[in-house]
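Q: Hi! First time asking for a complex rather than a single chain. Here are the components, and I think there are two in total. Is that enough to go on?
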Amino acid sequence: CSDYLEVPNKGNLTNDSFWQTEQHVQQGLTAAYSALASWDGSKWTFFEEVFLGMVIRTDEISNNQSSGYAGKLASFTNTADESTASNNWLTRYAGIARANQVIQNTPNVPGLSDELKQAYIGEAKFLRALNYFYLVCSFEKIPKVTVFETDVDKLIPSQAAVGEIWALIESDLKEAETTVPQSHADVWTGRATRWSAKALLGKAYLFQEKWSEAVSKFKEVVEQGPYSLLPNYADNFNGVGENGVESVFEIQFSGDRNGGVDKRQPINWEITPAALDGWELFSASDWILEEMKTDLTTSDEYSDRVYESLFFDDPNSTIRRPTETDAIPYADVKGSLTFPQYFKKYNAWTDKQGDYVGTNVSLIRYADVLLMYAEALNENNNTADAIDAINTVRVRAHAEPLDNTFTKDALREQIRHHERPCELSMEYGIRWMDLYRWSKGSVAKESIKTTLSDHGKAFADNFVEGKHEISPIPASEISLNKNLVQNDKW
Amino acid sequence: QSRTVTGTVSDATSGEAMPGVNLVIKGTTNGTTTDANGAFAIVLKEEDNALVVSFIGYKTQEVAVLPAQTTLVVKLESDVTALQEVVVVGFGTQQKSHLTGAVASTNMDNFMKVPTGDALNALQGQVAGVSVSNATGAPGAAPVVQIRGLGTINGSSPLYVIDGIPSEPSYLNPAEIESISVLKDASAATIYGARGSNGVILITTKRGKSGKPQITINSFVGANDVNLNGVSAVSKAQKNAIMQNAYNNAGLTPPTWTMDNSKFADTRWADAYFKTGLEQKHDLSIAGGTDDVTYSFAGGYYSNNGTVVNTGLNRYNSRLNLEFKNLLHDHLKFNLGVSFVRKDLKNYSEALGQGNADFSPIMSLYTALPHKEIYDATSPNGYAGQDPLLGVVGAGNPIGSQMLQNNTNQDDYLQLNWGADLKVLSWLTYQFKLGVNSENTYNDTFLPAYNFGPGATVETPRTWQERARINSSIFNNLLNIKKEFNDHSIAVLLGQSSERYVMRSVGGSNLELPSSLVPALDAGIGTRNAYGGIVENRLLSFFGRATYSFANKYFIEGSVRKDGSTRFGPENRWGTFYAVSGGWAIHRESFFNIDFISELKPRFSYGVVGNQSIGDYKYQSLITLGSGDPDFPSAVNYPFGLSKPQTVATGASALGIGTPDIKWEQTTTSNIGLDLGLLENKLSFTIDYFQSKTEGMLVERRPPGSAGIQKAPTTNAGNLENKGLEVTATYRNEAGDFQYNISANVGTSKNKITKLGYEGQEFIDGYVEFNNYATTRTAVGTQVGEFYMKEVAGIFQTQQEVDAYKGKDGELLQPNAAPGDFKFVDINNDGVIDDKDKRSFGSGLPKASFGLTFNASWKNFDFTVMFNGTAGNKMYNAFKMEMYRLNASPDLLNSWTPTNASSDVPRLNYTDPNSNYTTASNYFLENASYVRLRNLQIGYTLPAPLAENIGLTRLRVFAGGYNLFTITNYMGFDPGLSNTGKFSRGVDKGFYPISRSFVAGITIGL
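A: Yes, that's all I need. Here is the structure of the assembled complex.
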């Protein structure tokens, strides 16, 4: 009788039969990386929820009011009921849960050296720190989950203090920067290295206004790290330079579609003008165009970052159709465009299968490290070195170097509202995170509302200070976890 | 002097000849029975002047015989309330008068008159306490069936048992059905133990009777038109006017495409999407046999080509039942049943269910811009793509997407059962039954390349093909003991059953075909993908039942079942279920002498049944490896490396957590019933009141996102109480040639959650836009999926009103509001309008559902009218909310303006800063009670002599209408539709409404 009821599960390994080999650890780690491209593995969740949710509120972006995507968020009338916040939350915690599985199971894997175990655990901790970084900057008061809990009755943590999260981020990264390898074998390129950990640690210091720690960490990366700037600014966004010398950490996408897996991203369609078959979920704001237009070469022409970031009314400005490779001049489509200017980062590609593309999306690149280094130096009263770092970035894009007449305050303004947006426009939440930290910091605190108003952001009037800097804890989350307290004013 | 009288006996309703009818000469014990053709011959003495004609289930008739009369035609009327009526119960039958539990048998005459191909659909409104509602009106869509409302939040679907074998009812041809019993309470359902808690529906198919072959042909043809309840889409000019006002009011410049009514097309998408559908059903049955062998064959064809273009259902049924009797000197009977069904279903996928389900495809007809063309002769596929002048809003072509897709299902269902009855002793029978169901499903999806803009793009021609083979088998051994002595009657059933279910699936896809002309997988030039799975479960059971009655007045019954299931871990595998019940036929007591009460039988039952409707392996902690989880094929893999494209590495992670301690869910039900017959049972009532408590409900407990898992663990996480009342009343009478009967039934139910998940946990659901704006809540103290939302207290008429609307600290409650916006109630009175300002507004589950059937016949005409409906249920008109949100409803032409201040439609504003249209509020919640004329039918039966003249035994023609009208205040398509989601019932996303149809048919007996 009892035999009759013994039916093996032929479709799955279980937690007891897994975590036995190094390959299992690599697979566990791979899954932790995979969460970077969204919790459910969907390219739509990645772009239309997580990515869009991070960029749509900034002064760089002009929301397409005809598109339903993130419209409430863009007009600062969003509520805790909406999905951009919950998809962000789910995506980060999926990454954390998978990293935690690696962290707690690797020590018991037989036949693996301690050094290797430490390296894998360190890498998982890098991923955990990265996810907490985005979480704490998005929601502030969040649960600190460091163990993959398998008891269904223990899944309702309380929120930790913001400082506790930053401490976890720092300690995870400090471990990763010593245990993770300097580089990986070619087939594993794209995984975090100890240099990725150091750069993120520097960024974590910067966000906490720990200027001297930030300076020394960035200095380490700049002076000892393997990075340099790609000669061609555009190669950061078209796949040519992916995982290259400028790449500190990227989300990996691929056109490979073996096994029914889709790890492509759709940015080529999402941002391209409708007149060129794209979906134009948003366009570039007038402010970013005007600011970019001051980014000039020594011969007073627009720098590479202007031409490679924006598609705008200029004889030299071109863009592509999402599936084609011909460069189309602005003048050819000017009459049928819905908006005056668009972003063109990620519009060109070198790895495409079907309609969507395998171009990696950069989270931290070396130019960002140099600009963060410059900002930390300047705040640490070393304005001269800061200008040098900035000029390294400018020169690559053929922008005229800054002269050394800048005061600390003037350079701060230059970094905040020219160098960072011109170099890093539309990139993975960088601008919003910057606006967030400057609004929260103690040094030269800037209201996001004021910045948005000054920069002509539509619906800046709806922005409520002390509320819209962060996201509401998703209502779906509060309903499932009574220990959570909603953020103020939400 | 004696004389011989010859004649025939036939069924008064069907006209079919009745073999085996008893005829007794009045005042004597002499008699005879009719032969296989319903004919008899009897010798009467001179003084004999009448015959008493009787047959089980029919009214006994006394027929006068005149002295010179030598021929006689007798028509017997069926007597469904007859006390000797036999009812099918679990693993056997029982006299209706002996029932102690809540068992309802369906009036098959009424059932058979419903012109539908779906057996469950025909059950709608027929049985008290059985609610059948269409999830969608799409052909072939399975209705949602609930017995006694919601007794659990975990799968409320009853167990279907066809000829003793748990089976899938959607394949069944209603024409094959002989009887349907519904086991509603624990005492009736305990014999199905672990699967009985949602009730059991027992279906038996027709058997032959000895006699010459009876051939019957039944056909009907219907014309179906979708009933949109007057909901219309905007025209181009209307859309332009709305958009201009909405933009201008928001201080924005209206898009250029709204500025000139003379430009662009003016398409009515719905006109091209809906069509008159043709529904037809043709059945042939041949039945008959000898004393030793009987046979019944039924063959059927059913087709419904749908009211949406490029959809449709075809179904082919055949069933053969054979019975071999009198084997081994009358000790052994052997029966065999075999049924084969093929079902072809094409092209309609509805967004049902819970969570972030999308809108119905019909929504896209209403939201697609009228400015767009449908067709474009220059496009490779003939349909217009995105118009760049319309930008992102010009995306989509609902007609093109519907016409170009080719998504077909071909499902074959083979059912085989063998049974044998061995009479060991006069009081002891051994029965065995072997049942095998083999279901082979095949889904073939082919999409040509098309580009209708964002969200409506197919990059390359592609195909997916999936096959599954589901084998389930059951093996039963039963011992039946029946003993009667003096006034005592004892019956004991002992049984053992083993069941096994194995599903193996295999599928392949190729996302790049070289051409739309070669849809074969082999032709693909893209990556070849293959996938598939194996799932297996088993159930091992032992059960018993004992019934005892004394003097046909006192009845008691007890039953018990022990089930072992592979769905639970080794420690929690076995569950035991039991029930006791009793009844008292007071009307049979000698002291009972109230003349007009012909039956008075109170009943009582109490028992425990189980539920194991969860997936398999839920108790194990599973690791998802690679694309192994069909819900998340791309969630754990990730590319690395320098190659281009980068190679995607296989990932693995626990996407859920196992719950090793899970066990059966248990429902304890008490039932008090009363069978009441008045005026010689012309008027009869069956009344049942029940109360049930379900403990340890198996709930997919959604984990907080912070747990980082994607798959909800299944736990025994909740308790629920349910109670309700069911009343069935039947009245039958006749006045000369006019005979009529009315049967009405009503069932009420109300559930309440008494425990759920963690303390304080709530399940919110009923999202009305992708993952946004929940409308329902399930928590301790609520009903399952109760509507929970903000409350609108009218529209602000002036800025002063907005400015005066302050919280207790003097803060403006709605700073973004302007005149014309909704005023939301600060429900918790904390000075802010936020997510906490929500309250309950009732449920999508009806408080009561009812059915009423009136049958009448006059001479050769018959007439049937049937109503059904629900009361006390709400629907969230999410369709309307979405239409408002997208500025796509003609209602918005009447929106609030200072000069149209009486309007209840809020002001137009493109950015909707007050979130009138993106806040789940009671404004969009409507009363969805309804009464529907479900069936109206007039028939004419040719008088028997005339039929015989043309070589027929029977000819009936009928015509009628189905779903002719609905009385309701609900403003959406159809108040009778229900979402299939447990927690989102009543959330209407614009589902395919049911059709109104005109039907004509014929019955021919040969």
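A: Chain B touches chain A through 111 residues (CB under 8 Å). Let me know if you'd like any chain examined more closely.
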